[in-house]
Automatic annotation (TrEMBL), chain A:
Protein topology in the membrane: Peripheral membrane protein
GO terms, biological process: response to antibiotic
Cellular component aspect of the GO annotation: plasma membrane
GO molecular function annotation: ATP binding; ATP hydrolysis activity; transferase activity
Coiled-coil region list: none
Domain ABC transporter: 5-233
Gene3D superfamilies per the UniProt record, alphabetical: P-loop containing nucleotide triphosphate hydrolases
Protein name per its UniProtKB record: Glycosyl transferase family 8
Subcellular locations according to the entry: Cell membrane
Listed InterPro entries: AAA+_ATPase, ABC_transporter-like_ATP-bd, ABC_transporter_ATP-binding, P-loop_NTPase
Automatic annotation (TrEMBL), chain B:
Family statement drawn from the similarity comment of this UniProt entry: Belongs to the ABC-2 integral membrane protein family.
CC per GO annotation: ATP-binding cassette (ABC) transporter complex
Location in the cell: Cell membrane; Membrane
Organism: Knoellia locipacati
GO molecular function, one term: ABC-type transporter activity
Protein name in the entry: Transport permease protein
Domain of life: Bacteria
PROSITE patterns from the UniProt entry: ABC_TM2 (PS51012)
Amino acid sequence: MTSAIHVRDLRKSYGELDVLRGVDLDIAQGSIVALLGSNGAGKTTLVRILSTLLPADSGEASIHGLDVATAGPQVRATISLTGQFAAVDEVLTGRENLVLVAQLRHLAEPGRIADEVLARFSLTDAGQRRVSTWSGGMRRRLDIAMSLIGEPRVIFLDEPTTGLDPQARIEVWQAVKEVASRGTTVLLTTQYLDEAEQLADRIAILHEGRILVDGTLAELQDLLPPAEVEYVQKQPSLEDVFLAVIGTDRGAA
Amino acid sequence: MTTHFFSDTAVLLGRSLRHIARSPDTIISTLLMPIAMMLLFVYVFGGAIRSGTESYVSYLLPGILVLTIASGISYTAFRLFLDIQGGIVERFRSMPIARSSVLWAHVLTSLVANLLSLGVVLLVGLAMGFRSGAGPLAWLAVLGILVLLTLALTWVAVIPGLTAKSVDGASAFAYPLIFLPFISSAFVPTDTMPGPVRAFAEHQPVTTIIDVLRRLFAEQPVGSDIWAALAWCLGILAVAYVVAVRTYRGAVSA
Ligand SMILES: Nc1ncnc2c1ncn2[C@@H]1O[C@H](COP(=O)(O)OP(=O)(O)OP(=O)(O)O)[C@@H](O)[C@H]1O
Ligand SMILES: [Mg+2]
């Protein structure tokens, strides 16, 4: 079976700056994978390459067997992207935003689809108001909702909860779980370790241009020396794993 | 996928037209300058200008129409810049749509908005005494030239819309365009201008286009000048289109 997302030795630099230095990643169909990385690790760069917005310098990247470099239109018909910053039209109402996306995906009955999606994301009440009057959390949910229209097989979410308050984060998490429950493959990037713990089936850590580790939370926890488990007397948190793997010593905290 | 080019463009055009309908002040503000100029030149300077025609309004109106377009198209740069900044262009580009439909929608929006503005300016001109006995064919020719000029200048405006780093930068390019009609036959005949200025004025496209419009309104033969005017419009259109589409492919994805 071909993986939903397949990346092999992918490289990208901006001038002198080598951002991706040979990324390898395979993501099975229907799973939620969290891509963890610090600021500037290259998460957005990777997601933009996978969604055909940016050409890579070398290496392979394909979505359901479709090469992102040569089969752009087919890849775009398979995926959908929610970028790092909410990309909604503030002049339009929430419903109009959803209708717009449904029309651009050439679906029949865009109005009915918009109403269904509003209901699914508990946005029906706000749906008739211009998005400029919405809160940040509502916009982000709309942003994600727009990505679901047309049932793409693979969804990229670039830092879906950055800048949101705890309540809004939980709402977005519910939205992501809702998407994944329908069998959609989700690749989400995040800097929040608890978010990865909460949502992801598998976690990949991007650091210094490579995927350092990739596995389930339990597999990642096994990476730490057992000695630490004894002292702490509980499972190491993902934060411990993350800091250990990227080799940052945060002292005696 | 180019198969959806027309439907995608129509959907995105509908979106931009909604933006305009919800902030009609953008059209009103682009209208203020040309109408103020028309009032100023007709009622303040007009008496002192020898245009060689009976009615100065009739002499002036073609230039004001060109000025209206020059002032109107800067909003395309502004809107496109905001769309790129807001990330919505990136969203569109990651969707299975005809990619160039994003630009065409903005260009056609500009065409609709400018035709509305031109209509208003024409009505104000009529109220101020502009008269023309031109027949349907001449009016059609006027409309054709104005449409072509709007398309050409809007494609020019797309370029700063794509490349600007700030809102001010996106709109600033329009100032030289607005200035061009002043060094042309728009307000005064060129033969009173000093040598180099006159040479520039007589050979720049705005003069050619305005002179043709003026003769079409005055029921005079346009001769070969209409081809020169069309060539200017088409030439600018072709160059701006190619540069804009290239910039769109490159700059936005970098
Ligand atoms: N267009 C560009 N030109 C030059 N450098 C760039 C460009 N885009 C990104 N970079 C640099 O590439 C590196 C990786 O950027 P990227 O946005 O992929 O990181 P990220 O992991 O998404 O970070 P963040 O968590 O801050 O969103 C950064 O150092 C960034 O400054
Ligand atoms: Mg990022």
